[in-house]
Amino acid sequence: VRAAMFPETLEEGIEIPSTQLDPAQPTAVQRLSEPSQMLKHAVVNLINYQDDADLAT
């Protein structure tokens, strides 16, 4: 747990093992982050749209 939360405490050359057993299946954290990523992209698109609309007027 310490290595995952504080990777800077690892000795050089030691890798953190992956918790993803099947690369084809996303982890629970990846699945939970998808809606927030979609929201982030939607907000960025709205900001860009507003900037474009301001430039057009």
UniProtKB/TrEMBL annotation:
Q: Which GO terms describe its cellular component?
A: endomembrane system
Gene3D superfamilies from the UniProt entry: 6.10.250.2780
Task: Give a yes or no for keyword NAD in this entry.
Answer: no
Q: InterPro entries per the record?
A: Beta-catenin (IPR013284)
Membrane topology field: Peripheral membrane protein
Q: Quote the protein name from its UniProt record.
A: Armadillo protein
Q: Where in the cell is it found?
A: Endomembrane system
Could you mention a single GO BP entry for this protein?
cell adhesion
**GO molecular function terms attached to this record:** cadherin binding
Major location category of this protein: membrane
Provenance organism = Vansomerenia rogersi
Q: What keywords are annotated for this sequence in UniProt?
A: Wnt signaling pathway
- Top-level taxonomic group: Eukaryota
